[in-house]
């Protein structure tokens, strides 16, 4: 499926039109991505007297950060750095060099949100050397690792890290390693025609004011890039898993895992490694929002559904905050995804013999054989620790998720040894080596 049906398209366009009219947006574009391809595009308003198109450029703002983060993760995958490395290991003499790369990526370093310069989004930037010289202990607002605190400064440091390790600018590294391989050739540092002009809309009158645009220099990695709905749709597809070889699937999954939350115990917003996370209506979305003077943009991916959504607008503020998720809701209502067809698969008889009931003490667990030789161990009836496992070369099994993520499962003839926990076919089977010993069951 690549294109949505007529009724779906009409419902999506109406939601976009309501947003543009009621929020008084000079121009607004949006797109839906499904199965790696653009399934719908809509545009409202005017750019230089014409309707915006998939080729019209808007400023991305902080969506830039997610692209810089991909280059950092590529460096990690190449073994050039570790996420636990302190910044000083790769930027000798850098201020606040004790902060780790993972903390900077996840906004848990405790750094100030904005640089010690003039309002950086509205003034020409300063070179990296000057920005680094201005940073000091006063820019550390929280104990590193304590909490999520969004920091544009942190991504300026990561951009300089990329530049040093790649021997080029952060922009050229992002271009060569991310944008060009994904075919995002209309994503640029400065606007090219046709592009929308960024506007502020007067709060009490239907008039607009043009906003400034400039080179942010050292702060560029935090929000410099411009792009088009066409290119941003490719980025949405990337975030759903269509990585085009730019990043391995396991690394993208790691980027989408929550490293910090933004709103407390029942979190609905958080951050992974360079990616914002959201949980609206039971979905788990990964992507990023963007805001610069005159522009708002958002891209979200729902990997479980293979769907993505984006919008781009040339207004400083005023959108409802619900447009992207409302568009996903419409897609789900009008064209819900069909489940994949079930098909039988060939099974290793030795693995098949492991399936069925096992017991952690008295608690029954079900061991199931998954496609591609995976195992799933989960409590019968729910309410306990569940994990998936994949085989290792030494005959053991590695936990992928849940309580046992990263832990080792060993299979013996009469029991399972899961990081010292013994699972037996019968509850506390006396024939198995249960630590502490077992006696006969009695009334």
Automatic annotation (TrEMBL):
InterPro entries: AmpC-like, Beta-lactam-related, Beta-lactam/transpept-like, DUF7586. It comes from the Bacteria. Keywords: Hydrolase. Coiled coil: none annotated. GO terms for molecular function: hydrolase activity. Residues 20-322 form the Beta-lactamase-related domain. Residues 348-425 form the DUF7586 domain. This is Class A beta-lactamase-related serine hydrolase. It comes from Nonomuraea longispora.
């Amino acid at each position: 499926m690549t294109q949505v049906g007529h009724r779906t398209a009409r419902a999506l366009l109406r939601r976009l039109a309501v947003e543009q009219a009621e929020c008084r947006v000079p121009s607004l574009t949006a797109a839906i991505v499904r199965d790696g391809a653009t399934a719908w595009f809509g545009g409202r308003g005017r750019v230089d007297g014409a309707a915006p198109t998939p080729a019209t450029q808007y400023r991305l703002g902080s969506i830039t950060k997610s692209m810089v983060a991909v280059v950092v993760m590529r460096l990690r995958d190449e073994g050039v750095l570790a996420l636990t490395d302190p910044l000083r290991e790769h930027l000798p003499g850098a201020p606040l060099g004790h902060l780790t790369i993972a903390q900077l990526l996840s906004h848990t370093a405790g750094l100030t949100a904005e640089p010690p310069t003039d309002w950086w989004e509205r003034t020409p930037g300063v070179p990296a050397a000057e920005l680094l010289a201005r940073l000091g202990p006063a820019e550390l607002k929280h104990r590193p690792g304590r909490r999520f605190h969004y920091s544009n400064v942190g991504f300026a440091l990561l951009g300089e890290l990329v530049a040093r390790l790649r021997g080029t600018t952060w922009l050229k590294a992002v271009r060569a390693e991310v944008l060009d391989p994904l075919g995002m050739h209309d994503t640029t540092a400065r606007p090219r025609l046709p592009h929308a002009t960024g506007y502020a809309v007067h709060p009490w009158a239907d008039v607009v004011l043009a906003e400034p645009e400039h080179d942010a220099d050292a702060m560029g990695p935090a929000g410099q890039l411009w792009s088009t709905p066409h290119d941003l749709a490719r980025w949405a597809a990337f975030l759903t898993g269509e990585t085009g070889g730019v990043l391995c699937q396991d690394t993208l999954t790691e980027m989408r895992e929550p490293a910090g939350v933004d709103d407390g115990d029942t979190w609905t917003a958080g951050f992974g490694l360079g990616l914002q996370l959201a949980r609206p209506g039971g979905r788990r979305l990964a992507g990023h929002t963007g805001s610069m003077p005159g522009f708002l943009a958002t891209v979200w991916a729902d990997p479980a559904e293979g769907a993505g959504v984006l919008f781009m607008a040339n207004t400083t503020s005023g959108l409802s905050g619900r447009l992207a998720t409302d568009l996903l809701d419409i897609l789900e209502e009008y064209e819900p995804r069909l489940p994949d067809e079930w098909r039988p698969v060939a099974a290793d008889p030795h693995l098949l013999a492991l399936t069925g009931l096992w017991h952690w003490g008295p608690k029954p667990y079900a061991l199931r054989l998954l496609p591609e030789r995976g195992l799933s161990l989960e409590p019968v009836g729910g309410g306990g620790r569940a994990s998936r496992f994949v085989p290792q070369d030494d005959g053991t099994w590695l936990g992928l998720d849940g309580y046992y993520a990263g832990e080792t499962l060993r299979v013996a003839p009469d029991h399972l040894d899961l990081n010292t926990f013994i699972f037996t076919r019968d509850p506390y089977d006396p024939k198995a080596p249960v630590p502490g010993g077992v006696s006969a069951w009695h009334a």
